[in-house]
Amino acid sequence: MKKITFIFLLLATVMISCQDKNAFTVEGNFTENTFEGKTIYLQKIDSMEAQSFTVIDSCVIKNNKFKMKGALNGEAIMGFLSVGHIEAPEEESPMTTIVLEPGTIKVKFEKKDVTVEGTPKNNEFNKVLVTMNKVGTFFEELEKAGNINNMPLNAEGLDAKAQVEKLQEELLKANFDFVKANINNKAGQFLFFSSFTPSSFVQFSKEQVQEIIAAADSTVRNMPNIMTLEKEVNRVVPEVGLPFEDVQLVDMEGSRVALSKYVEGNKCTLIDFWASWCRPCIEEMPNLIKAYNTYKSKGFEIVGISVDDDRQAWHNAVSTHKMSWIQLGDDTRSASAIYAVNAIPHTILLDKDGVIVAKNLRGKELEDKIAEILK
Question: Residues of the signal sequence (predicted)?
Answer without folding.
Answer: 1-23
